[in-house]
Amino acid sequence: MEFLFRIVAVCCIGFRINCIFICTDPTLLKSVRNCEKLEGYLIEATTTSLMNCGKECVYQTNCLSFNYNTQTGRCELNRNVNSSSSPLISSPGFLYSDKSNWINVVTDPCRDVTCLDNEKCVVKNDTGVCIKYDCYIPSEMLYSGEPLYSGTVHGYDAVYNCSGPGVVREDVTLTCQPNGQWVGRQCRKISTCLQIKQCEKYNYTDGEYWLYPQVYDSTKRVKIYCHGLNTTTPKEYVTLINENIVRSGTNIASLRNNGQDCVSRSTTHPKFGAAKFNKMRVDPYVMFVNVSDMTFTSESVGIQQYGNTFDCTSRSAACDIFRRGYAKIDTSHTGLIVSRNVEWVTYGWQPVKWYFNRTSDQVIEMLCSGHCGGCGTRGLLYLVPDSSVNVPTDSAIEVNCL
User: Fold this and answer.
1) Which residues form the signal peptide (predicted)?
2) pTM value?
3) Can you state the percent helix, strand and coil of the chain, rounding each to 5?
């Protein structure tokens, strides 16, 4: 039986702070601790009556006790109970009670229903049904401290502060879903030069940095040269230690005397020329080479593409003396190699690949020609980590956006 019961809340300091009317069973009030609360184990907080607060705790499997604010009607469900390891604290206006004292309060169909951990009983069509409700305490996240959260049930957020060497300085939010799972992205490692620029208080300048490309699951460290950190669009490059060259044709050859002789004549063509690549530009998201970027080239003539070559000396052996379509890729000591899944093909008119040599994972050489034709990759030139090389840690800067 329930009665309209008058509670006078008197705290330990001896002053009357509140006087309210609560519709509840007076016998239950023997279990209520006045002006105290349990802190640090919150499942969720709602606004309701004392009786409904006790019922709500009974409905939820994870709830073991509750705090009730007599001034505001705030009901705080706890996943722990008063003990020596989790003692109550003085809190004027609050009442505290264990769940075990309120089991008999529930008289609806949920009374005889036992739910699993993280579940809650709700009444549907006069039947008690268990639903996923609590995501439990959010777990630790790599590169973050303890999360901040005000509840662990559906709709509540847990906010993580990401920081540390090589980590993007940001707040990451996980949200408790109806299926009982925390969902959201994780703290990120620094994977682009733009993210380095965003650490503006450190005034980082162009140079070599350690990045953690997402395409490598942010676990592989790559040495990247950041160019243009004083602009809004900095770009990523890999510094090439050894010689990387492209040498395309300069003449057009033709045959005489029934193909016995080869005659060469000079002409102009946008691809004619050569270039030495000192750095190759890469896309930090998928780690493919922008073969057309010639920002860091020397001895360059014409429009050259990294890892591609072009010539106009025909297929005849008589023109060997004029053949110049040569390219060399050498990624030694960079910590990266060209993926073996990259396919190399010929293109143009009457192309021929005189030789293609991959003497090691790091070095690729090719000699190609046509009338006019050449060779290069089918699709993108992808890079993958070189597991045989340990690039010195002190050869690049580990960014720390504190």
Assistant:
1) 1-19
2) 0.74
3) 10, 45, 45
